[in-house]
Design a protein that fits this description.
Strand order of the largest sheet: 1-2
Helix content: 40-55%
Oligomer: single chain
Structural class: mainly alpha
Largest sheet: 2 strands, antiparallel
Number of helices: 25
Order of helices and strands: HHHHHHHHHHHEHHEHHHHEHHHHHHHHE
Strand content: under 5%
Distance between the termini: 31 Å
Length: 605
């Protein structure tokens, strides 16, 4: 059967998919969810989607992959009113949830799975395990903000390793990540958009993160142990109190004259080798501060006093860990902004619209939409121990979550309708693997390398083992096993997995390269070629039923989570080359290829 013929088949699948997506089932009468009560003050809620679309949406949003065939059939048979909650709890407890959301969170934190003297995937594993055990979000943030050491003894330190403990860079990203405040403009001058926010305020924020330094080479931190000398790298000396800086400079000169300058080249190499660090490390030194830079139009050179983003000056004793002071202020129950920033990100992913945008810039000109919903979610999140799984469960069990798409309606309100979301790179790879019933895949190269009220009574602690990035894996069974940022040639990179230069810098724009890769790439080709093998459930279904139409129904349930329409079934029946009772693997391979290239498969609907 020709590929051109099945391009036409793809069009049929796409049209049928489009019509199917906009069907709505009869709405069961259940007690109204608190979110829905408030939601209706802002917008009507469109009719709920069909069961199959609801389950598929839930699975893709929570665990980043399609529901299994067994889940689809069981969900279809389940007539209870709370089955969304039942399956949501199941998905949130799966390791798949922790793997998928760890990819999203490490993208926020710009984690690089591999690097010089970094344990591959260690920070990812820390984030995934934290999500898996449903660790309170404020505790997770505190652990990261107060971390030092290396990935081997304290994986939370990966948050600081990303920027080599640069206090200015950290301040900028902490402001955006946890407070939705962009302060970078004040690095060189007073902020042009935040009223009364000065350059000194910027350095006052950075001062919270000044008591650290980064080393990944040879470093003898105990060189002056027992002496009243604060030993830090030379580039940090100027940020010590004046007296300590002078003592260190004099002692360094003395040590060099007595040792380094007297040693031969071999002795120097031996010394460096002896003190070579096994892992890139963040060291904490309480006496380090941050000096305000000298400039022509402003005095400088003084050690800046730390100040919170809200303008209040921090109070602590000399030698206190300023990071702990900041972390306590940031995560304090009275600081609702900290909670609302992460709630907004999670809500946006699940619901398709935001309380405010950009997600990292909540300024005095920002106009909030659905503010009462945001306030309600903030109260819920706070009362339920800052647990992300509980928040997600609360949202996805609302009628607003399973609202339908606009269809032919000219009403384009994002609050009223759910607009299809293109699968992100990780969802797509996971779904292709799940749909094809392939356990692992080896070659992910797609490009040539360039020449260079649910309440907290529900226990959502995860079960099962988490997969994590590996060094040069020969095969992967999940996007979680691929290093992020994904290499240039990798399938994930082609489909928008970002370079992690900035916060959550994945992209979802459609490109010609993506279309061609899905049609003719290695991953799709491999999965299609292996589809319907003798050990597959597809072949077993045919052996059981001796019917190609029933086998096609099985394919649809596996790939799209629904049954084919009557129109689709009649079309396929008319195109059989062999009899309906003869197994035609090539036909099924081409059908799977067509569905994997359809818009219904490629979107969260």
């Amino acid at each position: 059967m020709s590929r051109i013929h099945f391009l036409f088949m793809t069009m049929i699948v796409c049209i049928a998919s489009f019509l199917y997506i906009y069907q709505s089932p009869t709405d069961a009468k259940v007690s109204e969810h608190p979110i829905d009560q408030i939601y209706k003050k802002y917008s009507a809620i469109s009719q709920p989607v069909t069961d199959s679309i609801a389950l598929r949406r839930l699975a893709l949003h929570t665990k980043g992959t399609l529901p299994s065939l067994e889940e689809v059939t069981d969900f279809e048979k389940d007539k209870s009113n709370d089955k969304i909650q039942t399956y949501a709890v199941r998905y949130l407890k799966e390791a798949n949830f922790a793997e998928y959301w760890a990819i999203k969170f490490t993208a926020l934190f710009r984690d690089r799975a591999k690097g010089r003297k970094l344990q591959t995937g260690a920070f990812f594993r820390y984030i995934a395990n934290s999500l898996h055990e449903n660790k309170p979000y404020h505790l997770l943030v505190k652990e990261m903000l107060t971390a030092d050491g290396n990935l081997a003894n304290n994986p939370a330190v990966g948050f600081y390793l990303r920027d080599a403990a640069d206090p200015l860079q950290i301040a900028e990203y902490v402001g955006r990540l946890f407070y939705a405040q962009r302060v970078a403009c004040a690095r060189c001058h007073d902020h042009p958009y935040i009223q009364d926010y000065t350059r000194r305020d910027y350095y006052a924020l950075a001062s919270f993160f000044s008591q650290m330094y980064y080393r990944d080479g040879s470093w003898d931190k105990d060189r002056y142990k027992g002496e009243e000398i604060v030993y830090v790298p030379r580039e940090i000396e100027e940020h010590l109190p004046t007296e300590d800086a002078k003592k260190l400079k004099d002692r360094n000169n003395e040590w060099s004259n007595e040792n380094w300058n007297q040693w031969s080249a071999d002795q120097r190499k031996e010394f460096q080798k002896k003190h070579e660090l096994e892992h890139a490390t963040i060291f904490y030194e309480p006496k380090i501060g941050l000096r305000f830079p000298h400039s022509d139009d402003a005095p400088g050179g003084d050690l800046v006093r730390a100040k919170f983003p809200d303008g209040k000056e921090a109070k602590f004793k000399f030698g206190d860990d300023k990071r702990k002071v900041f972390a306590e202020w940031l995560t304090h129950p009275e600081n609702s902004r900290f909670r609302k920033v992460i709630i907004n990100r999670i809500w946006t992913h699940l619901m398709g619209w935001s309380f405010f945008t950009p997600l990292d810039d909540w300024n005095e000109d920002t106009k909030l939409q659905g503010e009462e919903i945001l306030n309600h979610l903030d109260t819920y999140f706070k009362n339920n121990g800052y647990r992300i799984k509980d928040l997600i469960l609360y949202i996805v069990t609302s009628k607003a979550y399973i609202r339908s798409a606009p269809g032919q309606s000219k009403d384009t309100q994002p609050m009223k309708f759910f607009y299809a979301q293109r699968l992100d790179a990780d969802q797509l790879l996971n779904s292709l693997l799940k749909a094809s019933q392939t356990l692992t895949i080896g070659n992910l190269r797609e490009r040539r390398l360039p020449n260079l009220q649910l309440g907290s009574q529900i226990d959502l602690k995860g079960i099962g083992n988490i997969r994590f990035p590996k060094d040069n894996p020969s095969e992967v069974s999940s996007a979680a096993e691929v290093e992020h940022p994904a290499p240039y040639h990798n399938f994930l990179s082609v489909f928008g997995s970002g370079p992690r230069v900035d916060i959550a810098d994945d992209f979802n724009e459609i490109t010609i390269e993506q279309v061609l890769t899905l049609m003719n790439g290695r991953v799709t080709g491999k999965l299609t070629w292996d589809f319907g093998g003798n050990e597959s459930s597809i072949k077993k279904k045919f052996d059981e039923t001796k019917s190609m139409l029933k086998t096609i129904d099985h394919v649809y349930l596996s790939l799209l989570g629904r049954h084919p329409s009557q129109r689709e079934s009649e079309y396929y029946k008319s195109k059989f080359i062999k009899t309906e009772t003869t197994y035609d693997r090539e036909f099924l391979q081409d059908l799977s290829w067509a569905i994997m290239n359809s818009q219904e498969f490629l979107h969260v609907n």
